[in-house]
Amino acid sequence: MEDLQALKQRFGIIGNDVHLNMALEKAVRVAPTDISVLVTGESGVGKENIPKIIHQLSHRKHAKYIAVNCGAIPEGTIDSELFGHEKGAFTGATQDRKGYFEVADGGTIFLDEVGELPLTTQVRLLRVLENGEFIKVGSSIVQKTDVRIVAATNVNMFQAIEKERFREDLYYRLSTVEIHLPALRERNQDIHLLFRKFASDFAQKYRMPAVRLEDDAVQVLLNYRFPGNIRQLKNLAEQISVIEESRNISASKLQLYLPDNKGNLPAIIGGSKKENDFSNERDIMYKILFDMRNDINDLKKLTLDLLNNENIEEVQQENHQLIEKIYGNKEPKSSNIEVLNIPQKVAVEKNYDFIETIEEDESLSLQDKEIEMIKRSLEKNNNKRKLAAKELGISERTLYRKIKQYDL
Ligand SMILES: Nc1ncnc2c1ncn2[C@@H]1O[C@H](COP(=O)(O)OP(=O)(O)OP(=O)(O)O)[C@@H](O)[C@H]1O
Q: Does the keyword Thylakoid apply (predicted)?
C-alpha cells in the first residue's frame, strides 16, 4: 500500500486527523477493485480527492476520469449528458452525441451530488451498475460500458430515500463501500495546519509575505465551527492574505472575518446593528475597496504616462478626465506634478504589466462582486444552498454551478 504521507503529498492533501487517515486508507484499499464507492461528508470537506485517488491507484488510471456535478446539470439534459443521444431525439439534437458513460468506457466516473439525480436518471444509472448496459436517449439499441462509479453526497441519503427522492436499491448499489470524510470542526488539530498551508500558498500566489495568526487568534480559529469546512477556511485565508495590511493577525482582526456560528456575519463597520443591516455595511466596505483599487490603477496609469512622456502639459491634457476623476475639480497644477521630480530616463520598458491589470481588474470587479455576494449569502444561510439560492434569486443549480466555477 502506498505510504500515506506520500499519497497526501501527491494529491495535495493536508492533515493528520485519524479519521481522515482512515478514509484515505480505505480509498487506497478499494482502488484496485471495481467496487462502487459512496463518499459522504459535509460540503467542502474534500470529497473530490477520494475519487481521484481511487482512479489513479486503479488499473483504470490510463483511461478517462470524468467528474460530473449532478446538481449542476439541468434536469432536461442530464440523461443526454450521461448516456448520450441520437440525432433527432429531441429538438436541437442535430447530431449523435456520446454520453459520459460511453466516453469513460474503461475508466472512472465521479458522480458528485448524486442525491440530486432525477428519478428517471436513477433508473438508467441502476441499469449501468447492474449489468453495464445503457441506452442513448432516442435510441432502442442497448450499449455496453465498463465504468467504475464513485459517487458523493453531502445530503442524508436515508432522508432522501424516505422522502422518495432517491431509490433505495440504487443507494445500496452505489454504496458497497462508504467512505466518510469528517467535518473540519471534528479535525481540530488540522485547522491551524491547513490555515498555515493556505496562507503560504496565497503568499506565493500574491507575492507577499504569509499572514501569521497570533496565539489568541489561533484559539479563535480552533473554536470556530466552520460550517463551510475546508473550502471556507481556504477562502478565509485568501481574504485575510489579500485585505489585511499587517501580516500578524490578532484575534479581534480574525473575528471580523468569521460569521457567527448561527450563520450571521459580524459587523465590519460600526458597532450595533440590526440583522438585516449587514449587507449594507459590507456593501459599503466593498464599494470603498473597489473604488480605492480603481483609484490606485488610475494613479498607476498616470504615473506611467508621466514616466514615458517628457511633456507634462501634454500628459495633463491627455489625462484630463482621469485627473478630474482622481482629484475632483481641483485639478493639480502642472507645478504640483513637477514636485514629483521624476527622472526622465527611468527604465520603464520592463515589468509594467499593470496596464493589463487595469483592464483585467475592471472586468473582474463584477465577477469579484458576484463571488462576494455568493460567499456572503452562503455564510449567512449557514451554507444551506437552497436558502442562499432563494436569497440571491437564482436557481439552486445555477448556484451550485457558480460554487464549482469559482471554487467557493
Ligand atoms: N485535506 C485537504 N488539504 C488541502 N486542501 C483541501 C483538503 N480537502 C479539501 N481541500 C480543498 O478544499 C476545497 C473544497 O474541497 P472539495 O471540493 O473536494 O469539497 P467537497 O467535499 O467535494 O465539497 P462539495 O460537497 O461542496 O462538492 C478545495 O479547494 C480543495 O482543494
A: no
